[in-house]
Amino acid sequence: MRTPLLPCVWGEAGRQLWLKPESLQATGAFKLRGASNALAQLDAEQRARGVVAQSSGNHAQAVAYAAARLGIRATIVMPDTTPAVKLEATRGFGAEVVIVPPAERDIRPLELVAEHGYAHIPPYDDARIIAGQGTVGLEIASDLSPDLVLVPVSGGGLISGVATAIKALSPRTRVIGVEPELAADAVESFRSGKRVTWTPEQTYRTIADGLRTTSVGVLPFEHLRRYVDDVITVSEEQIVEATRILGRKSRLVVEPSGAVTTAAYLFADLPPAATTVAIVSGGNVDPAKYLEYLGGQ
User: Fold this and answer.
1) Which structural domain range is residue 168 located in?
2) Which one of 57, 161, 261, 272 has the lowest number of neighbouring Cβ atoms within 10 Å?
3) Its pTM surpasses 0.85
4) Helices 58-70 and 84-92: crossing angle, nearest 10°?
5) Catalytic site residue 281?
6) 145 flagged as catalytic
């Protein structure tokens, strides 16, 4: 589904902010774009065998939803730290869920492929996924020619697709990735020029559960190096404050992972930009936690 660009009346003078609310997608996050594109390209034999994917929640729901619409059996491997709201939604779309420790999240799917012949639908390190996520960038560029686009970074599928589309259609626009300080593997990779892996114990410290991937993918990293202008971090406190502001001032229910870009707009040292787009990647937040965020001062 195409999502609108929403102007923020509370943005700073001379720094107009627009939000790209992917939280309004049918499954509550941008992941539906990539999953739908990948599943649509499976042949009849692959569809008959079924698919397997791994995810902390949003890719899981996207694959489950898209598979159900196409009549494909879906098995989703999810870490045992996944918020209950995301587990319930994934099961609700008809997928079988396999719960594993975080360290096994990327291993178990490959074992299931070997055991059952499932088609693997990875969350980000896949050209079909990147192309699907890139439609976010296509929509932004067709609606506006912003000075700056802020994109959340986890495995790198979203920023890969968005940056490729933006640079093709609006070369002057800067694209900056944003991730939590407590899961800053992409920043370290971008700065060093080589893919860096953090441990699950490191990345799972952040409240932004959708951004806990331990490294960017191989294919996304090449996109980052070629098309992305910078990658920066925001603190846990800044993420919570941005989540609160988006709820109170923009009336958007946003999960912490989706609020990192707004946090960057509010608190980071960004290059001058008269117009900024912050991609709000998802809104699948635990209700109890969300009430805590809104209740803070």
Assistant:
1) 6-26+127-295
2) 272
3) yes
4) 10
5) yes
6) no
